[in-house]
Amino acid sequence: MEHITLLIGIVIVTALVFDFTNGFHDTANAMATTISTGALKPKTAVAMSAALNLVGAFLSVEVAKTISGGIIDEGAGIRPEVIFAGLVGAIVWNLLTWLAGLPSSSSHALFGGLIGATLVSVGIGGVNADAVVMKVLIPAVAAPIVAGIAATAATRLTYRLARNRAEEDSAKGYRAGQIASAALVSLAHGTNDAQKTMGVITLALITGGVLAPQADPPLWVIASAGIAIALGTYLGGWRIIRTMGKGITDIQPPQGFAAQTGAAVTILASSHLGFALSTTQVCSGAVMGSGLGRKGGVVRWSTAGRMVIAWGLTLPAAALVAAGAAFLAGQGTWGVTTVAVLGVAICGAIWAASRRKPVDHSNVNDVAPAESAAPAGVVTAALQSVAPPPAGSTTAGAGTIEGIPAQSTTRSPATSAVR
C-alpha cells in the first residue's frame, strides 16, 4: 500500500504538470486575437486569462466526470502506473506541438495517452468505445465546424451593422468587446480544460482505492488543477499565440470579437453537456471562420491544413508514446523510474531547442524573416510540414519544403483590409 500511495502521488504531480502545459499551450485560445489586434498588452492579457481560468475551474465538474468514469473503465483493472504512462504521452506531444507553434489539442493528447496506455495494460476492454465516439470523436469533428460557421456569420453581421460608422470609432468599441469576449473564453476554458486534469487525478484516486467509484473530485483536486492551469496560462504559449494571431488570417477587431464570442458559446455549451472537446480546435475554427466572414479577408489554408494534420495526429501519436511508456511502467519500479527519467530528458531537450529562437511577450507580434532557401533534409522537411509559416508571411503552399522560400511581407492596415 505504501508503494501504491507513493505512485499515486507521482501520478498527481504528473497530472498537474500536464495541466500546466495545457495552460500555456492553450493561452492562445482566449488571447491570440486580443493580443494581435492590440486590444490588450500581452502580459495584461495572459494575466487576465489566468485569473479567469482559475475561476472557471470551480464552476462545473461534468467534464471531470466524463474523464474519471467515462472514457476509461475504472473497474477494468486500471492501475496508477497506467495513468502515469498516459500523462507522459500527453505531455510529450503537448511540448512537441508547442515547439512547432502548432495549436494542437491538449484534450486529445490526454485522451490518446490514456487510451494507448490502457490498451497495452488491460486490453481493449478497458476503453469505453461508445463514450470515446460520442464524447470525443464526434465533438472533435463537429465543434470546429460549428464554431467556424458561427464566427463567419457573426463577422458578416458585425461588419454589416458597422458599415455606416467610422472605422476608428467602431474599432474602439470592438476592442472593448474583444476584451469582454476574451474574458468569456478564458472562463469557458477553465470550465472545460481544467476539469480534464481533475478527472485524471480523481481516476488515479479511485484506482488506488482512495475514493469510491463514480466519486466527484474533492475540493483540493479542483483547487490544485485550477491553480496549475492558471500558472501555465500566465506564462503564455507565445509561439502558439503568434500562429493563432498572425499565421491563420489577418485579424481586425470586429473579427476578433466575433471569433471569440462564437468560441465561448460553443465551449460553454459543451461543458454543460459534459463534452470534453478541444478548446483549441474550437478557437482555431472560429478564427478561420472570421477570416472567411470579412469581405476581402484571407485564410492561409497552408497553415490551416498543417493544423488539421496535427489535430489528426494528436490522439494516435500521444497514444503511441503512452503505449511504450505503459509497457515500461508495467515492468515494475525500475520501469516507472525509467519512464520518469526519459520523460524529463525529452522535455528538457524540447525546452533547450525552444531557446534557440525564443518567442515571448516582447516579440509575439513581430514579423519573422523569410525562411532560408537552402534545400531541406528529410528531418527538416518533416518538421516543416507541420510547422506554421512565419508570422505575417503569405505562402501559396509548402514552398519551404521544396526549397522555395516563403515571401514575407509587412502590410499596412489598409493593405490588410483590401486582402
- Which radius of gyration do the C-alpha atoms yield? 21 Å
Report the span from N to C terminus: 64 Å
Helix content: over 70%
Instruction: List how many beta strands DSSP finds.
Output: 2
Number of helices: 15
Strand-residue proportion: under 5%
How are the strands ordered across the major sheet?
1-2
Indicate the multimeric state.
Answer: single chain
C-alpha geometry:
globular
Structural class: mainly alpha
Number of domains: 2
Mean pLDDT: 77
Poorly predicted runs are 368-419
Structure description:
- By secondary structure, this protein is mainly alpha-helical.
- The chain has two domains: 2-366, no CATH class; 370-419, no CATH class.
- The protein contains 15 helices and two strands.
- The protein has a two-stranded antiparallel sheet with strand order 1-2.
- It starts with a helix and ends with a helix.
Q: How are the secondary structure elements laid out?
A:
Blueprint: H1 2-36, H2 42-56, H3 62-71, H4 80-99, H5 106-121, H6 129-161, H7 167-207, H8 219-235, H9 238-247, H10 253-273, H11 279-293, H12 301-329, H13 333-354, H14 378-384, E1 393-394, E2 407-408, H15 413-418
Antiparallel strand pairs: 1-2
Helix pairs in contact: 1-2, 1-4, 1-7, 1-8, 1-9, 1-10, 1-11, 2-7, 2-8, 3-7, 4-5, 4-12, 4-13, 5-12, 6-10, 6-11, 7-8, 7-10, 10-11, 12-13
Which key terms come to mind for this protein?
single chain, globular, 1% strand, membrane, transmembrane helix, phosphate transport, Phosphate transporter, mainly alpha
